[in-house]
Amino acid sequence: MKYFGTDGFRGEANKVLTVEHAFRIGRYLGWYYGKDHKAQVVIGKDTRRSSYMFEYALCAGLTSSGADAYMMHVTTTPSVSYIARSDDFDCGIMISASHNPYFDNGIKLLNGAGEKMEESVLEGIEQYLDSEDDIPYAVRENIGRTVDYASGRNR
């Protein structure tokens, strides 16, 4: 199924875009970028009620796959793009549905250059979302952590 459109994966929170989707997107990204090093992913969100839920689900997915999740908290998409690029993150995630109704939300993925995620990565995520396959969980010292990255947002 095609989940990612022109501007990310969008839809009504917990109907079209669910917390399970967010968790599995985090799982995939943590695994994908963490194949040869500890992945580092920066996350921003808007003020929608569901953004907090999606932020924590993404963090749980990322850290359970071994990635470190850097949380910028409430910020703008351009700031996530800038920090992903300038602070050498593997990728960035913005949780927002912009002009859509308040009950919608979205997950926008940015590559390490702060640009729209490559189609090949998005296709890999979509295949994973539609499959019963699972990604190995990180254990012991390989489990990721979350980091309050308000300093990135403030810059």
Overview of the structural elements:
By secondary structure, this protein is an alpha/beta fold. The protein has a single domain (9-133, 141-149), classed as Alpha-D-Glucose-1,6-Bisphosphate, Chain A, domain 3 (3-Layer(aba) Sandwich). The chain has helices at residues 19-33, 49-64, 77-86, 119-130, 150-154; strands at residues 9-12, 40-45, 68-74, 91-95, 104-111, 146-148. Strand 2 (40-45), helix 2 (49-64) and strand 3 (68-74) form a beta-alpha-beta unit. The protein starts with 8 loop residues before the first strand and ends with a helix. The model has no long low-confidence stretch (mean pLDDT 96).
Name its key features.
155 residues, alpha/beta, Alpha-D-Glucose-1,6-Bisphosphate, Chain A, domain 3, six-stranded mixed β-sheet, 5 helices, 6 strands, globular
The side-by-side strand order for the widest beta sheet comes to: 1-5-4-2-3-6
Largest sheet: 6 strands, mixed
Contiguous low-pLDDT stretches (5 residues minimum) are: none
Gross morphology is globular
Helix and strand string, N-terminal first?
A: EHEHEHEEHEH
Query: What is the CATH third-level topology name?
Result: Alpha-D-Glucose-1,6-Bisphosphate, Chain A, domain 3
* CATH 2nd-level architecture: 3-Layer(aba) Sandwich
Q: What's the multimeric state?
A: single chain
Name of the level-1 CATH class: Alpha Beta
The count of strands amounts to 6
Radius of gyration: 14 Å
Number of helices: 5
Decide which structural class fits the backbone.
Answer: alpha/beta
CATH evolutionary superfamily: Alpha-D-Glucose-1,6-Bisphosphate, subunit A, domain 3
